[in-house]
Amino acid sequence: MARPEKPLDPEAGPLQAFAFDLRRLREKAGSPSYRKLAEHAHYSAAALARAAAGNALPTLDLTLAYVTACGGDVEEWQQRWHAIENQQRPPATAEHISPPSPTTPSPKETPPEETPPPAEETPQRPAGRGRRSWLMTLGAATLLTVGTAVALVVWPDGPPSMSWADASNVLPPPDKLGQAQVDGADPKRVGCPDAVTAVGQEVWLGSVAYGTLELRYSQKCVSAWARLNPYGSLINNSSQGIRIRLETFRPDDSTASRVDEAFLRDQHWAGMLRTDKGCVKARGQITIDANASEVVETICVKR
Length: 303
What we know:
Elements: H1 14-28, H2 34-41, H3 45-51, H4 60-69, H5 74-88, H6 146-153, E1 169-170, H7 187-190, E2 196-205, E3 208-218, E4 223-230, H8 232-235, E5 242-250, E6 255-262, E7 268-269, E8 273-274, E9 281-288, E10 291-292, E11 296-297
């Protein structure tokens, strides 16, 4: 028999009220077990239970996965999450602030995967190979600044070697600003407005989760690509020796698109690979001062 949940007082504060209403939403859905809910939310039962525990604000992705699985109003809960997250966010220092520009979306317009989840930055790592967090499909891609996009896809001497990949066909970096929907193209330059996160897995180093390795997918572009969505634990890390290694990999023909670069305090991604030629997976690794995380990879997705 499952252990009863700790009672919540919705008057005790915004976090308690948030979790209390998540539980009510689950009750309205027929009170499915968290194990049953996990089948639809693509998160573990333990993660879903923590989301409604009231101890900390769950990530936006986890919240929306919970809400969607219970048949709730995604837009309403997204607004509620941002309201609480803005209250909890500490004042940013000048070191991490970029000047606003006309093309930079406001916080309210920022899609779910653009906001580093602040609440689950330093959870205890469970035993075994690493805690996996499978993300449900949600959200749309938001363009980053042009300067960032160029920095992410250009290598001085071609793609770096990645000994942990079994790719035999490594695509060269793109050399055109305007690109077609072809293997190796930069998804930000191609422009795939329907892009969503198909699946993802957290990247851990020691006992800290530093971000989510995501496999982005666009039905319009018939392509998928690897992307790292960093958590606040990585963005606010004081080390200047952080590197990001990503690979978009298609096992059917051993084709890969790779990046190996210094962390830019923002999202990183590799080139896109077409999914009509075979399933595509994402691989990734974070290194901080020569301490490397395990190489993580998503399941292979073909649409």
